[in-house]
Specification:
Order of helices and strands: HHH
Structural class: mainly alpha
Strand content: under 5%
Distance between the termini: 39 Å
Helix content: over 70%
Number of helices: 3
Keywords: Membrane, Transmembrane, Transmembrane helix
Radius of gyration: 15 Å
C-alpha cells in the first residue's frame, strides 16, 4: 500500500509536518544572517532543501484536494494549507 493511498487526514498531517520542516529550514539562514553565528555561504543550501520540502508539502495538499469522494473538512484544511505554503514559498523565493 502506497503512502499516497492513505486517508486524507493522514496525508494532511504529513503535509503539515513536511511544510513546517521546510519553513524551519528556510528560516535558519535568515536567522544566521541576522546573528552571524556561522558563515552564511555554508548555510545557503538549507534554502534549497526548505523550498523542496515546501513544494512537496504543497503537492500533497493539492493531491488531497483532487481526491474524489472525500468530506468537506479535509478539503477546507487542504485549501488553507495551500494558501499558507504558497505564501511561504513566494516569501522565501523573494528573500
Amino acid at each position: 500500500m502506497s503512502w499516497m493511498d492513505k486517508d486524507p487526514s493522514t496525508l494532511l498531517q504529513r503535509c503539515f509536518v513536511i511544510g513546517l520542516i521546510g519553513i524551519i529550514l528556510c528560516i535558519i539562514p535568515l536567522v544566521n544572517m541576522a546573528m552571524a553565528v556561522f558563515d552564511p555561504a555554508k548555510l545557503v543550501f538549507l534554502n534549497g532543501f526548505g523550498l523542496l520540502a515546501q513544494l512537496v508539502a504543497l503537492s500533497i495538499a493539492v493531491y488531497v484536494i483532487r481526491m474524489r469522494k472525500i468530506a468537506e473538512g479535509p478539503k477546507d484544511k487542504a485549501k488553507s494549507l495551500i494558501i499558507v505554503l504558497a505564501v511561504a514559498v513566494v516569501f522565501f523565493i523573494l528573500q
